[in-house]
Amino acid sequence: MIGLQESPEVAAAAAAPIAGGGNWTLHFLQGITPEAVPGWILPIVTASISVGVVIAMISVIAMLSVWLERKVSGHIQCRYGPMYAGGWHGWAQTIADGVKLLTKEDMVPSGADKPLFMLAPAIVLGAIFGAFVAMPLAPDYFFADINLGVFFILGMSSLTTIGVVMSGWASNSKWSLYGAMREAAQVVAYEIPLGISLMVALICAGTFNLIDASEAQRDFWGMGWFIFKNPFVIPAVVLFFVATLAETKRAPFDLPEAESELVAGFLTEYSGIRWSFFFMEEYAAMFLMSLVMAVFFFGGFESPVTYLAAESMGLGYDHLVTNLLGAVTLIVKSMMGVLLMMWIRWTLPRVRIDQVMTMGYKYLTPLALVCVLGAALWEAGKQAIL
Amino acid sequence: MPEVTASAKKFFPEPRILPGGEREFMMDVATSDLEVSMGPQHPATHGVMQVLLRADGEMVTAAQPHLGFLHRCAEKIGENVEWLQYLPYTDRYDYLAAMNNNLGYSMAVEALLQVEIPRRAQLIRMICVELNRIASHLVAFGTYGLDLGAFTPFLYAFREREWLLMIFEKICGARLTYSYLRIGGVFNDAPPGWLQEVEHFCDVFEEKWKEYYDLLMVNKIFVERTARVGVITKEQALDFGLTGPMLRGSGVDFDLRRDMPYLLYRQAFEDGAFEVPLGRGEKGELGDCWDRIYVRVKEMMEALGIVRWCLGCIEEGPVLGEVGKTLKVPPGEAYVAIENPRGELGHYVLSDGGKGSSRCRVRGPSFCNLAIIEDIMPGTLLADAVAIIGSTDVVIGETDR
Amino acid sequence: MSEQQLDLRAEEQARQPASIGDYFKNIWDAVTTTVAGMKITGRYFLQKPITVQYPDEQMPIPERYRGIHYLEQDKCIECNACARACPIDCIEMEAVRHGKELEWIKFTIDYQKCMFCELCVYPCPADCIHMGTEFAFVTEDRSEFNLDLLSYKGMSRDARIRMKEAAEKKAAKEAAKKAKAKAEAEKKAAEGGDTPSEDGGEEGTDA
Predict the structure, then answer these.
(1) pTM more than 0.90
(2) What residue spans define the domains of chain B?
(3) For an interface test with B, which of C52, C63, C64, C135 has the most B Cβ atoms less than 10 Å from its Cβ?
(4) B218: distance to nearest CA of chain C, Å?
(5) Mind listing the pLDDT tens digit for each residue in B158-180?
(6) Going by C-beta distance under 8 Å and a sequence separation of 6 or more, which residues neighbour residue C176?
(7) What single DSSP character describes residue B23?
(8) Contact criterion met (CB below 8 Å) for B351 and B329
(9) Which ipTM value was assigned to this complex?
(10) CATH class of B74-400
(11) Contact state of B173 with C64 under an 8 Å Cβ cutoff
């Protein structure tokens, strides 16, 4: 990044050693463990706790998102959604569905490639679990401080495609194969605009690291969001959002999954807990991509509220309250993105596969490149003038 | 090029020379077409119909519809029951537009009986038939969106349809299979307040129509999915004997209500109550799927015009002609064709003076319209196959009877 | 490549945007129509839904609704007009005539066959069979679908006659009591309330 000046916080965070830094859990455990315990156990315990928290988070998010989707779709369609399970607006509906799916017979169709059939949902869910590791929740609460954060996330979330294609092939059904082939083509086409439009934000951020990118949006009382920094970022957000819809197989790009045209796509032969793995992956990926969008375009865990807690009230960025507020802010922003995805799903019809390709290669990619060029020139111009 | 051994030639055929003189690409990959059955159980065939497709990758190379899964021997039953007893069976072939079926049968028998229908009965018949046309086109519109992945317009269409079904429930007691338009008129007079409710419905529906148009019809993705897809030329439409919106979507200006009028449609047309919407190739080519669904959506508005005209000139009077409790139909034959929401519905009734008809043949528009998909599907993509079948708006109950 | 595939290729070429203006028009159309659609769905998201929570709440059923039949047994003359009118022959009735009186044995409609067409209502000369507003009919035993519409089912004719006479007698007694009380009250009002009438009230014996 030629000529880009890093803000002092970013420079300090980048210069701090990993062993001395590290997240809140590590600090907390370091504070309370007795001297006799050897030092190398702590990171392992922290990692295990983080993994547990990630799994819990994904499960809760998936459960909440499924319920939310059903309620949102219901209210858009002038009806209530679930109202019965659990009493108030059916909040326990997903739990009931989960229990039902767990108790279903585990069927593998005859003629299906059994190892691949069983491995596919595991790969899909495992990849998303892995991608969540790079996710920051707060200035001091993260699971792993990965310097190549967003690069890692994009890479891990692309691994899910392998699982989808595997499931389509292993199902031994023509419809599944169609769905899997379409999925592969679609994901490949939209990886490019996804990465390129994200690069616009990276130009403003100066780093791949999600935590540093969020912290860089701390100016102007927590409203120094990248979306206000550069006029080319606004079209980039739109392009990124559209590419996200295609990556997570959401309408209007949901050819691989919810094909009311051709039965149920690559999911046709899956039932029970394996099917629910695919759906957990879908909602987790939606949340993850929303989170990336929130971090790189909309301020991450910085907002006037966290600024208030940290600076005006003098608590600093290490305090529990600031961290909690930051986590809440980030989760709220991500859920806004998820809600927007749901809103779009229930409004638009499905795009045909060749039109998906046309849109990806002929419309989104050139526009993303133009945005990158413009953003780079803008930043260079700003440096030259100021 | 490397030498292809004799044994390998079995699996790798010789490259073909294309008309332009160039060699076929990827000549060493021999693929066979995939035979896929859009089986009797399918979310997107409107009923139990099987379409056998042969697809080369994503492109359909042949299509063949198979019918008969919903055959219920309606015409044979017509020979064995009495005149009035056959009426509920007529409801059940095109169950989305049951009033029209009743009308067709009743008019055929009335042609034999030579009985005069009172004016109030004719106006109430017209109101019911046109409201049913709106209800049927709402289903066509909603399910077409559903086939293409737009889940919400379906629910909005059904919200209006629910109101229509409640209106019908108030006048005849049933929501789907009415048996209301009897031989000689209608069965019951409208209850008090019914006509006002119909007028209220007309006012509200006009605003909702704009919503349907904005939500689905002009949506860029919907236009991309349906424009230039499944084009039926004028000549093709006339050759295959298509009727209804499929014919008018290709630009042929023919509507039985205006050209061979029955009930009071001639008067309504002369008073300017309705026009016949035609496809114009607005968003693509003339005769594509968008034109056909546009004709249906526009017909909903025209039907409102007819209903308002009928409400304007309705008067008191009897609602059932002089037919008596037991029908004595003189021997003879009659063919009456009316404009169903799907096309021309014809009833041919042969009487030999007995208690029931001795032959009751039905010309179902869906059956005749379905013949064209075998011709227009090859060359389209698999996703377009669904769009084309949806745009024909078949009801398998009518196709199979 | 078959002819059709070549034609399709040619069509594809023809379908490309002819100019750069078309390219931007496509983008603009996509954005504006999407936003217009989202406005509509967003508006409905914020409105109250129109559905009712069945079975806790129910939609109102109009009075002409064609539901389960009910029979006015006293008017029926067992003429079988409704059974003849039924297209599916699902009405069966049986009664014994005692002069002008009818002793009913059964009057069943087979609801496994009935299609609720209302053709049985129209030909009845005594106007005694009607269709009600009940539509939910759930049983666990198929034989219950042959619903017997008789209200005095299982009672013999003599018992029914006796019941009717007793009811008439009781009604007559009530009427007589009322008339007597009214006469007493009038007398009291006329005399100004001097003589308190001891209205013992006859206790009539039940027959």
Answers:
(1) no
(2) 1-30, 74-400
(3) C64
(4) 7
(5) 999 999 999 999 998 889 988 89
(6) none
(7) B
(8) yes
(9) 0.82
(10) mainly alpha
(11) yes
